[in-house]
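[Discussion] Sanity-checking designs against the backbone

I'm trying to build intuition for which residues belong where. Below is a structure token string of 166 positions. I'd appreciate it if someone posts a full sequence so I can compare it with mine line by line.
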């Protein structure tokens, strides 16, 4: 029995591995994908810090999405649902317009509680911007429309997963 306990991975380590894999995604790894927009967007990560966990939405062209929780668990395979694919493509298309409100980032800190950070993956590099989740949700930030598009991806993912269960 002790051996099986040793083989269990810490949920935080699994989360960090998935997060690093998402942040390290390149256009070349997304076989047959064309980047979109002026800046060549091909993926967006939206991370929100909560007191109990960090939630990361990773959304890549041509429409795949995953949702990771720092406490363990999440959802993968969002690209298997038409509604999710459409929401992901929209999220990536809209992200291109927000690049002027971002800066290139060589580092990828995790959000503090109450904070949302966007990482927009482009052919030019990774751009980032952040704001308080409450301000984003209340439409008070220039990034609020992008936040709402990310929330739509999550909503479509959850609806599709719930429909599959029933």
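Best answer:
Here's mine. Compare freely.
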């Amino acid at each position: 029995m002790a051996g099986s306990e040793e083989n269990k991975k810490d949920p935080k380590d699994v989360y960090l591995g998935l997060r690093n894999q998402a942040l390290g995604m390149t256009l070349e790894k997304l076989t047959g994908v064309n980047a979109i927009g002026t800046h060549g967007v091909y993926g967006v990560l939206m991370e929100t810090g909560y007191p109990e966990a960090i939630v990361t939405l990773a959304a890549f062209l041509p429409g795949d999405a995953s949702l990771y929780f720092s406490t363990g668990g999440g959802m993968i395979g969002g690209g298997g649902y038409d509604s999710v694919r459409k929401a992901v493509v929209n999220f990536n298309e809209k992200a291109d317009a927000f690049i002027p409100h971002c800066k290139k980032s060589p580092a990828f800190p995790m959000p503090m509680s109450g904070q949302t950070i966007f990482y927009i993956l482009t052919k030019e590099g990774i751009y980032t911007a952040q704001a308080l989740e409450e301000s984003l949700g209340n439409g008070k930030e220039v990034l609020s429309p992008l936040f709402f598009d990310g929330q739509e991806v999550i909503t479509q993912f959850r609806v599709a997963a719930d429909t599959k269960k029933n």
